[in-house]
Design a protein that fits this description.
This protein is α/β, with parallel strands linked by helices. It is 21% helix and 29% strand. Helix 3 links the parallel strand 8 and strand 9. It comes from Burkholderia ubonensis.
Length: 323
């Protein structure tokens, strides 16, 4: 994304919505330009100082045109993103954002929905809940938090979403797993499950729900990739053959496939560059990928016919990609 693609958005409201979470409401800074419409599950890129970019889910009702609301949790190990937003951004500031992207959409049918969130993972599911209620689709919304003051948008859940929302506070990991199993076990056979939260929560939901529901009824979004067993750069390089452009490139240990592609003027759609969003999904024609993303399902990875080149690598010496 270039500077010319960015949107100038002005902060019109800032509010503390949990003990460590603030919300920002944004509108276009240009009087003759409205912020683009978005669907539930979408996120935007927020471009901060020194080239820092962070992704935040849009959590307001998509029916509310021309306004984006994002929520930012202050992370203890912040590398400058959440800390800068909490400490420096105020009402009236003009921020640079990307247009909405959605890799976590609702199923386009009228199926019932079960929403499971933990921590700051509640944000995309809030927009989903608003959309589902407006469409008259059946839903149940379960939110797991460590304490009441850590529940982001607790007031919204207790008012606008009170008829569908249940907040589970202070459960142990075992109790959380038991609650998730009970929720999954009681689901309508047509219902789809949408979940988002910290990596341990995501792993627990996936382990419980996937055997029961399969891939087609399971939808998730990771805010960060689970730790990989081997980090990029700890193993050897490999070659990638680009079938359409008839080029062969070397990927050294210290670079990702997308880095090498960029260096050689080959454009690939990217967004998160952390293996969680799916934007860079690329077809593999030959070779075996070393999957290190958190986007593809287990079945996708077993087929080895696609990969996320922003983080994944090669299990052998060569990959042939449809590029």
């Amino acid at each position: 994304m270039t500077e010319n693609d960015l949107i100038a958005a002005r902060v019109i409201a800032r509010e503390r919505v949990a003990c460590d979470v603030i919300s920002l409401r944004l509108v276009s800074d240009a009087p003759d330009f409205a912020l683009p419409a978005f669907d539930a599950g979408a996120h935007i890129d927020l471009h901060l100082r020194d080239g820092l970019t962070r992704k935040y889910s849009l959590c307001n009702d998509p029916f509310e045109r021309g306004v984006y609301e994002i929520a930012i949790k202050r992370e203890p190990a912040s590398r400058g993103g959440s800390a800068h937003v909490h400490d420096a951004i105020r009402v009236g500031d003009v921020l640079r954002i990307g247009a909405p992207l959605n890799y976590f959409p609702l199923a386009p049918d009228d199926s019932p929905a079960v929403l499971l969130a933990a921590g700051i993972g509640v944000t995309p599911l809030l927009a989903m809940a608003h959309s589902l209620l407006r469409a008259g689709r059946p839903l149940a919304f379960h939110y797991f938090v460590r304490s009441a003051d850590a529940a982001a948008y607790g007031a919204t859940l207790a008012s606008q979403l009170a008829s569908v929302a249940t907040v589970h506070t202070g459960l142990t990991p075992d109790a959380t797993g038991g609650a998730i199993a009970a929720i999954v076990g009681a689901m309508d056979p047509r219902a789809h499950l949408y979940f988002c939260g910290p990596a341990p929560f995501m792993a627990a939901v996936d382990a419980i729900a996937r055997p029961e529901l399969g891939d087609a009824r399971l939808h998730h979004e990771h805010f960060s990739a689970p730790a990989a067993g081997t980090a990029a750069g700890e193993d050897g390089g490999f070659e990638i053959e680009l079938a359409r452009s008839r080029r062969t490139l070397r990927v050294p240990p210290e670079q990702s496939i997308t880095d090498v592609l960029y260096d050689h003027g080959i454009e690939v759609a990217t967004s998160c560059e952390a293996g969680v969003c799916g934007a860079c999904r690329t077809t593999v024609l030959d070779g075996t990928p070393d999957h290190r993303d958190a986007f593809l399902s287990a079945a996708d990875k077993a087929r080895n016919d696609c990969m996320m080149p922003c983080v994944s690598r090669c299990r052998g010496e060569r990959l042939v990609l449809d590029l």
